[in-house]
Design a protein that fits this description.
It contains five helices and 14 strands. With about 280 residues, the chain is of the alpha+beta class. The strands form four sheets. Strands 8, 9, 11, 12, 13 and 14 form a six-stranded antiparallel beta sheet that branches. It has a four-stranded mixed beta sheet with strand order 4-3-10-7, with no helix packed on it. It has a two-stranded antiparallel sheet with strand order 1-2.
């Protein structure tokens, strides 16, 4: 309906001007002219003709309005029915990782087959876990933590510090560990879902995960164990996704960690009220 009016707007404006301005002006002009013979002399006045014309024009406009309203409602109904049963094929890009012994490719066995060792593998997997690592070299997106980072999680806010070649002692340290579950609680699939994380005011960056069906979930973990105050501040955790109609949406969550000015203690926080906005 909107496309029809946009496509024919000048024709519609011209027709409206003709029936609302030109025709009444012609009727008024016709009654100012004298009839060449008595047979052609009008028995109506110009006001009677204009009233009749106005009533007929209003009737035609009413009928057209009712017809367009019914047609518009039927189009919306058919479109809603089509959307309820519309199939949509979404692609999920699998990640892969492999490890190979390069020496086994050089030194082959007698049957010309590579000498495969047990530590070689190739694996394809769906990225349903995103670890956001904050470090002095920037923000990185990983599918797992390193062994050292896992040990930091186990140790919690207490770490081992070495002084010199022999002295080692325990001391408190600042650790950011914020795990989340991302769940699609809407009524449609979230297509081409992207997990973004960046410092407030910086350029958006992130990683794409799989398409999330209704009720499906993924895992996200924000992690930082580097003791560098330059990393403190405000960050944005953002989820970007689309629907089957081609619309794109964004949800942003404010994340902050640093030293509390009042008590001098380390803190990390997130505002879990993520407002959904449609992307332009």
């Amino acid at each position: 309906m909107k496309e029809f009016f946009h496509r024919h707007k000048w024709k519609l404006l011209g027709a409206s001007a003709f029936f609302l301005i030109v025709v009444p002006a012609l009727i008024n002009l016709a009654f100012k002219l004298h009839a060449p013979c008595g047979f052609l002399a009008a028995e109506w006045s110009a006001g009677d003709v204009l009233s009749f014309y106005g009533a007929m024009l209003a009737s035609v406009a009413t009928i057209m309005g009712v017809y367009l309203s019914i047609d518009y409602a039927q189009r919306n109904y058919r479109e809603d029915e089509a959307n309820r049963v519309r199939p949509y094929l979404a692609l999920t890009h699998y990640k892969s990782k492999s490890r190979s012994n390069l020496l086994s490719l050089v030194f082959q066995t007698s049957n010309n087959e590579p000498d495969r060792t047990s530590d070689e593998f190739y694996e394809e997997y769906k990225l349903d876990k995103v670890f956001i690592i904050i470090g002095t070299d920037g923000i990185s997106f990983k599918d797992s933590l390193t062994d050292a980072q896992k040990q930091s999680l186990q140790a919690g806010s207490i770490g081992m510090v070495q002084e010199g070649n022999s002295k080692r002692f325990l001391c408190p340290r600042n650790l950011v560990s914020m795990p989340f579950e991302i769940e699609n609680v809407g009524s449609g699939a979230a297509l081409n879902t992207m997990v973004g994380f960046y410092k407030a005011g910086a350029k958006r960056r992130g990683v794409n995960i799989f398409t999330m069906k209704t009720g499906q979930s993924a895992y996200c973990h924000i992690f930082c164990d580097e003791q560098n105050s330059a990393l403190y501040g405000e960050y944005i955790l953002e989820f970007i996704y689309g629907d089957i109609l081609g619309n794109r949406y964004s949800q942003k969550y404010n994340v902050e960690f640093g030293i509390d000015a009042e008590n001098g203690k380390f803190f990390n926080s997130i505002n879990l009220v993520g407002e959904q906005k449609r992307e332009p």
